[in-house]
Known about the structure:
52% of the residues lie in helices and 11% in strands. It has 14 helices and nine strands.
Amino acid sequence: MIKQFSFTGARKIVFGGGSFNTLAEHIRELKGARPMIVLDRNLAEAGFRDRISDLFKKEKLKFTLFDRAEAEPPLELADEGAGIARKEKCDIVVGIGGGSAMDLAKAIAVLAANRGKAADYLGLNNVPGPGLPKIMIPTTAGTGSEVTFTAVFIRRDLKKKEGMNSPYLYPDLAVLDPLLTVSLPPHPTATTGIDALCHAVESYTSINASPTSELFSLEAISLIASNLRAAVHDGSNVAAREQMLLGSLYAGLGLANAGVTAVHSLSYPLGGKYGVPHGLANTVMLPAVMTFNLPATLEKFAVMAEATGEVTDGLSTREAASLTVKAVETLIKDCGIHTKLKDLDIPEKDFPELAGAAMTVARPLANNPRKVTLEDAIKIYGQAY
């Protein structure tokens, strides 16, 4: 029998080239009159600040700009942004950028309406009530944060990453415009793309996967495996960018409903202690965790091999399954990422400490198809070295 399952996500998704230009219309649909725009700092400096200003000036809509979003955002930024949103009487929050900007926007939206401190909301279901309406607009094909209920932050005082996880963080609207991703340079295109692949692989193999989530996760694997190389090596390839953004969306939907697994548990300490960007940390850890998990779910790995484009005719289940790991390793290398933990100057002597920290990221480990012990975690770090 199929086990009981549910399927959730953003309330509404708008996808297509040029859809960003309809932002003001969507703000008004959600009864917004004084939006706060949470913008990635690099985007702001690259001219996106002016684009937003021109758009809202044309629509005669006043807005408050919070353009301090940065990669691996510190928790304090959420409190700061929420304070500004309350002071300016903002009634809707729009997050524009990569996962960090969108996570920050989601947190600001719930903090502005519920008060309290961001630290009070960390963990599962600790957000007391609905926040301001939220619109998320990704400019990378990576995190899928536009359709998830999670916001992740750096705790600088503790040198670790922690997340808010609550249904109240689900966006009211996700607007996905592939044209916004065209200017992303090759390296972040590659690392965010592998991050999306990581979400797809983890959610597909999660013990909480359902028939519905598996559809999205598997299609995401196929889309990303078929289009990431083209998006990295020819960023102006709009068709590849479009398919990558769709793959990232599908992976986000799989993640939101099935959860991630041990890759995220082991990558979090790399970001918290060493500041390794999330996408790169997942990229470094993904092949090693896949190798560890393969014996526990051979059939799914064999199916993923076909999704990555590998020819499996005449092969045993195990032979086909092994092709998936090789396909992912080849994709990572083809996209120009040759990084290992040693390249990040992470000493082997720190592996026990990292493993101990990873074991505290319990929720993804609970989803993993194979139980991970402290000793296993140390060995996986060693394989990724």
